[in-house]
Every structure is written in C-alpha cells, then in structure tokens.
Amino acid sequence: MRIDVVTIFPEYLEPLNVSLVGKARACGLLDVRVHDLRRWTHDKHHTVDDTPYGGGPGMVMKPEPWGEALDEVIASAAAEAASPVLIVPTPSGRPFDQELAVELSARPWLVFTPARYEGIDRRVIDEYAEHLDVREVSIGDYVLAGGEAPVLVMVEAIARLVPGVLGNAESHRDDSFAAGAMADLLEGPVYTKPPEWRGRGIPDVLLSGHHGRIARWRRDQALARTSANRPDLIARCDPAALDKKDRATLTELGWSQGEDGRFWPTGAHVEE
C-alpha cells in the first residue's frame, strides 16, 4: 500500500516512522511519503493561506499550492493502473470507524490532505472529486488545531489491517468494532502474567482451561462493558446476533427486549 500525506508540518508525521507502521515501512509493506505543502508556494514567505471571502474569523488554505501539490503527487504514479483515494480530514466529514478502516485497507493508494486554519478552499475538494474517490472523514465530534493528528489515527487503524503488518494475522479479528466480532461489542478486559499483582488475582475462569466457559465469560464481559460505555451499540445490535445467554445477561444488566427483539434500557420509552 502507498500512502501520501501533504502537510505544512511534515515533522508532525514523524510517529509514522515508529511502531507497527514504521516496521511495515522498513520491510516494504507500506510506502509512506510525506510532502511539505510549502514546496508548491511561489512567494518568499511560502504563503499557504488567505482571508475568507464573505468575512469571518480565521484563514483559509489557498487552492493554488494544494492543486499543484496534488497534481504532482498523483502524476508521480500516473502510469500505474490504480488511482488514489483522496482523504480529507475534517470535523464535518463522515465518522471514521472500523468499517471504513477495513474498506480503505483494501485500497492500494491513499492520499491524505490534513488542513490547518479554517480548512482548504472548497474548490480543491470539488475539483478532485470529479475524477477521484474523495472521502471527507472525521475522527470525532471535536475540533483540533489541524488534520495531522487525525491522519496518524487513520493511518494506524488502516495499516494494521494490511496483510503482513501485524505479526499474527488473527490479531485484529476480535477487535472492538471488527466486522462480525462479538456482535459489534467492545472488547472485555484482558490479563497476563503474573497471576497475582498487588494483591489482585486473575478471574478463575481464565485459569480453568475450559475454552467454552472462557469464551462465555469474555462474551459476558464484553456485554457488560458495552452496556456501561456504549449503550448505543446495544440498542442498535441485531437481535439475531444475540443468543439466549446474551439476552439473559442483558436483562441482568438492566435491559428489556422490545417486540421487535431489540433491547432498550429498562423503563425507557420506546417509540412505536
């Protein structure tokens, strides 16, 4: 997979040289290229922004350097059959989730455009959307100083799904939010050696060697954690993904099953 990032702060992307992504780059599984947007400016101040039309606070990133940068990056592999997916980090975009990470991990080439200030002149996005797959993506309902942090988040989430990046190919199968994993429940708690630490032991079931009981315990813990931290996932869970014991556990956790089979917090009003 090839990943290009165009930014005015290349140094912000240094974490891409460490951990799993760094190792994947070193062994050739990922081809990550970071470009300084200011290379495509033509004034002595390397200006990349200007005041917004219509007035208002802040500055807007100019279309000229972005257009020149993206043209050159895209042309650098014009002879290849694949065209890139252009990913625009923005709080007004589609929420980034595991489903999207899986989809993007199957694409051979991603180009990220982390912006600063009030964002990139809209004409840039509209221009490239005419001939590229452009995705405006948000990592959450909050505003950051720039798009570099979201790029780090997305690249790590995507890269670990690329075959060969994780040492154990099965490692991501039971991740929270993985497709089909635990009916989209959060993962439960995990433990390792030593068997006792500061007076705290390990749940007996994990030491039992009984794989069926261990699987059931993990499922119940996942249900409990999801109920406490992400009740919205329980409410939208497909009833067909829940077995009899799941339903009993949810009842114990304070959920009631409606006529349509879905679960709601006990006492909550359900609109018909």
UniProtKB/TrEMBL annotation:
<dbReference type="InterPro" id="IPR029028">
    <property type="entry name" value="Alpha/beta_knot_MTases"/>
</dbReference>
<feature type="domain" description="tRNA methyltransferase TRMD/TRM10-type">
    <location>
        <begin position="1"/>
        <end position="235"/>
    </location>
</feature>
<keyword id="KW-0808">Transferase</keyword>
<comment type="function">
    <text>Specifically methylates guanosine-37 in various tRNAs.</text>
</comment>
<protein>
    <recommendedName>
        <fullName>tRNA (guanine-N(1)-)-methyltransferase</fullName>
        <ecNumber>2.1.1.228</ecNumber>
    </recommendedName>
</protein>
<feature type="binding site">
    <location>
        <begin position="139"/>
        <end position="144"/>
    </location>
    <ligand>
        <name>S-adenosyl-L-methionine</name>
    </ligand>
</feature>
<dbReference type="GO" id="GO:0032259">
    <property type="term" value="P:methylation"/>
</dbReference>
<dbReference type="InterPro" id="IPR023148">
    <property type="entry name" value="tRNA_m1G_MeTrfase_C_sf"/>
</dbReference>
<keyword id="KW-0489">Methyltransferase</keyword>
<comment type="subunit">
    <text>Homodimer.</text>
</comment>
<dbReference type="InterPro" id="IPR002649">
    <property type="entry name" value="tRNA_m1G_MeTrfase_TrmD"/>
</dbReference>
<keyword id="KW-0963">Cytoplasm</keyword>
<dbReference type="InterPro" id="IPR016009">
    <property type="entry name" value="tRNA_MeTrfase_TRMD/TRM10"/>
</dbReference>
<keyword id="KW-0949">S-adenosyl-L-methionine</keyword>
<dbReference type="Pfam" id="PF01746">
    <property type="entry name" value="tRNA_m1G_MT"/>
</dbReference>
<dbReference type="GO" id="GO:0052906">
    <property type="term" value="F:tRNA (guanine(37)-N1)-methyltransferase activity"/>
</dbReference>
<dbReference type="InterPro" id="IPR029026">
    <property type="entry name" value="tRNA_m1G_MTases_N"/>
</dbReference>
<comment type="similarity">
    <text>Belongs to the RNA methyltransferase TrmD family.</text>
</comment>
<keyword id="KW-0819">tRNA processing</keyword>
